[in-house]
Design goal:
Layout: H1 3-22, H2 28-53
Helix pairs in contact: 1-2
Length: 74
Protein backbone atom coordinates (compact mmCIF):
# COMPACT_ATOMS: atom_id res chain seq x y z
CA UNK A 1 0.00 0.00 0.00
CA UNK A 2 1.46 3.33 -0.96
CA UNK A 3 1.26 6.54 1.08
CA UNK A 4 -1.77 7.96 -0.72
CA UNK A 5 -3.72 4.69 -0.47
CA UNK A 6 -3.11 4.71 3.27
CA UNK A 7 -4.18 8.35 3.57
CA UNK A 8 -7.44 7.77 1.69
CA UNK A 9 -8.16 4.62 3.72
CA UNK A 10 -7.66 6.63 6.89
CA UNK A 11 -9.91 9.40 5.55
CA UNK A 12 -12.67 6.86 4.90
CA UNK A 13 -12.33 5.40 8.39
CA UNK A 14 -12.21 8.81 10.08
CA UNK A 15 -15.17 10.06 8.05
CA UNK A 16 -17.19 6.98 8.99
CA UNK A 17 -16.32 7.42 12.67
CA UNK A 18 -17.28 11.11 12.59
CA UNK A 19 -20.62 10.40 10.85
CA UNK A 20 -21.35 7.60 13.34
CA UNK A 21 -20.61 9.84 16.35
CA UNK A 22 -22.39 12.94 15.10
CA UNK A 23 -25.57 11.07 14.18
CA UNK A 24 -25.46 8.78 17.25
CA UNK A 25 -25.76 5.76 14.97
CA UNK A 26 -26.93 2.48 16.50
CA UNK A 27 -27.55 -0.92 14.93
CA UNK A 28 -26.06 -2.75 11.99
CA UNK A 29 -28.09 -1.16 9.18
CA UNK A 30 -27.43 2.41 10.36
CA UNK A 31 -23.72 1.66 10.82
CA UNK A 32 -23.65 0.15 7.34
CA UNK A 33 -25.10 3.37 5.88
CA UNK A 34 -22.57 5.45 7.83
CA UNK A 35 -19.73 3.29 6.47
CA UNK A 36 -20.97 3.73 2.91
CA UNK A 37 -21.20 7.50 3.44
CA UNK A 38 -17.70 7.64 4.96
CA UNK A 39 -16.31 5.62 2.07
CA UNK A 40 -18.00 7.97 -0.37
CA UNK A 41 -16.20 10.94 1.21
CA UNK A 42 -12.82 9.25 0.67
CA UNK A 43 -13.81 8.03 -2.79
CA UNK A 44 -14.77 11.52 -3.95
CA UNK A 45 -11.52 12.95 -2.59
CA UNK A 46 -9.47 10.23 -4.32
CA UNK A 47 -11.21 10.74 -7.66
CA UNK A 48 -10.73 14.51 -7.37
CA UNK A 49 -7.00 14.09 -6.74
CA UNK A 50 -6.67 11.61 -9.63
CA UNK A 51 -8.48 14.01 -11.96
CA UNK A 52 -6.32 16.99 -10.92
CA UNK A 53 -2.99 15.14 -10.84
CA UNK A 54 -3.60 12.94 -13.87
CA UNK A 55 -2.27 9.93 -11.94
CA UNK A 56 -4.00 6.96 -10.32
CA UNK A 57 -3.73 6.63 -6.54
CA UNK A 58 -3.87 2.84 -6.54
CA UNK A 59 -1.17 0.98 -8.45
CA UNK A 60 -1.19 -2.61 -9.71
CA UNK A 61 2.28 -3.25 -8.29
CA UNK A 62 0.87 -3.00 -4.76
CA UNK A 63 -0.60 -6.50 -4.89
CA UNK A 64 1.15 -9.75 -4.07
CA UNK A 65 0.47 -12.46 -6.62
CA UNK A 66 0.71 -15.89 -5.02
CA UNK A 67 0.92 -18.96 -7.20
CA UNK A 68 -2.04 -21.31 -6.90
CA UNK A 69 -0.07 -24.54 -6.71
CA UNK A 70 -2.04 -25.88 -3.75
CA UNK A 71 -5.51 -27.36 -3.99
CA UNK A 72 -8.10 -25.16 -2.34
CA UNK A 73 -10.69 -26.64 -0.02
CA UNK A 74 -14.18 -26.28 -1.32
Amino acid sequence: MNELELIFSMLGEASTAEITKSKDVKGFEHNKRAAIAGGAVAGKARKDLERKSGKKVSARDNYIHKPQDKKLLG
